[in-house]
C-alpha cells in the first residue's frame, strides 16, 4: 500500500476550493487561511512577475497572522491569471463582463500563468516559481456563451471559465500543465515540498 508521509505542518494561504482539492487528494493535513492583500498589477508589470509577487505576498500575509502558532510550519500559496493579447483577464464582475471575456477568448489562444510560493517559517526561506500553459478555445457562438454564463460557473474564475467543470467543452486544446489551468501546478510544487522535508513517499506491505 502506497502512502505519503507528512513530516511538517502545512498551511494553505488560499480560500480556493480547487487548491484545497489538490492537497486533499493526497491526504495531506493542512490549515487554511485566506490572505488579505491588494491583488492589482503594478503599472507595466508583466504577467509572470505579477503572479509570483501575488503568491509571495499571500504567503507573507498569512505568516504575519499565524507565525506564532508554529515556527515549523510550511506556508503554501498560489495565484493564477489568464493572459490574452498581453492583457490580464481577472475574474468577471458581472454577466456582461463574463460574456465579453469569453467572446474575446473564442476561437483563440491564451496563456494561463500560475505562481506559487513555499515559505518555510523555520528557515525563513521562500521558494517561488511560475508555470505557464497555453490554452486554445473552440469557436463559441452566442448561445453557448450565454448558456455557460447562466450556469454561474464563470464567476470567481480567472478568464471566466473552469476547465475542470462545465467549461471543459469550451476548450479545444492545451499545451502544458492541465493542473496549472485548474489553478495549482501540483506536479511542480511536490518536488519542492520533498526537498525541504515536508513530505516523503513510501509503501507499506499488505
What's the β-strand tally?
A: 9
Which architecture name does CATH use? Answer: Alpha-Beta Complex
What count of domains describes the coordinates? 1
Radius of gyration: 18 Å
Major sheet details:
7 strands, mixed
- What structural category arises from helix and sheet content? alpha+beta
CATH topology: Maf protein
- What is the chain-wise order of helices and strands? EEHEHEEHEEHEHHE
Number of helices: 6
pLDDT < 50 runs, ≥5 residues: none
Mean pLDDT, nearest integer?
Answer: 92
Shape: globular
Helix content: 25-40%
CATH first level: which class? Alpha Beta
Strand content: 25-35%
Q: What is the first-to-last residue Cα distance?
A: 6 Å
Name a few traits of the molecule.
206 residues; alpha+beta; Maf protein; 7-stranded mixed beta sheet; two-stranded antiparallel ribbon; 31% helix; 29% strand; globular
Offer a concise description of the structure:
By secondary structure, the chain is α+β, with helices and mostly antiparallel strands. It is built from 6 helices and 9 strands. The chain has a single domain (about 1-205), classed as Maf protein, CATH 3.90.950.
Amino acid at each position: 500500500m502506497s502512502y505519503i508521509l507528512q513530516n511538517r505542518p502545512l498551511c494553505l494561504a488560499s480560500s480556493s476550493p480547487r487548491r484545497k482539492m489538490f492537497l486533499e487528494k493526497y491526504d495531506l493535513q493542512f490549515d487554511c487561511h485566506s490572505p488579505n492583500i491588494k491583488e492589482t498589477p503594478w503599472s507595466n508589470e508583466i504577467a509572470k512577475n505579477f503572479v509570483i509577487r501575488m503568491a509571495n505576498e499571500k504567503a507573507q500575509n498569512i505568516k504575519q497572522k499565524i507565525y506564532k502558532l508554529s515556527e515549523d510550519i510550511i506556508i503554501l500559496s498560489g495565484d493564477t491569471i489568464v493572459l490574452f493579447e498581453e492583457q490580464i483577464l481577472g475574474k468577471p464582475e458581472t454577466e456582461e463582463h463574463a460574456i465579453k471575456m469569453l467572446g474575446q477568448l473564442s476561437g483563440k489562444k491564451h496563456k494561463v500563468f500560475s505562481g506559487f510560493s513555499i515559505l518555510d517559517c523555520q528557515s525563513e526561506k521562500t521558494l517561488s516559481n511560475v508555470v505557464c500553459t497555453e490554452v486554445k478555445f473552440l469557436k463559441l457562438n452566442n448561445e453557448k456563451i450565454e448558456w455557460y454564463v447562466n450556469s454561474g460557473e464563470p464567476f470567481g474564475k480567472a478568464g471566466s471559465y473552469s476547465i475542470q467543470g462545465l467549461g471543459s467543452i469550451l476548450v479545444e486544446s492545451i499545451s502544458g500543465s492541465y493542473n496549472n489551468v485548474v489553478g495549482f501546478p501540483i506536479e511542480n510544487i511536490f518536488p519542492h515540498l520533498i526537498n525541504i522535508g515536508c513530505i516523503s513517499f513510501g509503501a507499506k506491505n499488505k
